[in-house]
Amino acid sequence: MAVTLNPAYQSLPGYADLREKASELEGVFLNTLVSEMFKGLETDSMFGGGYAEETWRGMMSEQYAAEMAQAGGIGIADQMVAALIETQAAQQSAPHLSSMGAYTQ
């Protein structure tokens, strides 16, 4: 299910920072996926393998993931931004009760 962000969200204070952090988190998730994909690749022993290739694969998966996230990702960042903004709006409209206020004496 695709999430379409309400255009009004973009005018909220802090939206740009929230969107940037959500995109970074999506990049971390994508890095995990790309890293797992690279683990399944076999390399030829004459020019591949070893510590250098392992290091290169890690850096390459980080770059692929960062580029995918910046290009729009797979929608995780949009879902996080929408959920966080809606949660914050719900908390601001809810009555402010402490845990003590929930009990009668």
Automatic annotation (TrEMBL):
Residues 36-81 form the Flagellar protein FlgJ N-terminal domain. InterPro entries: Flagellar_prot_FlgJ_N (IPR019301). This is Rod-binding protein. It comes from Pelagibacterium nitratireducens.
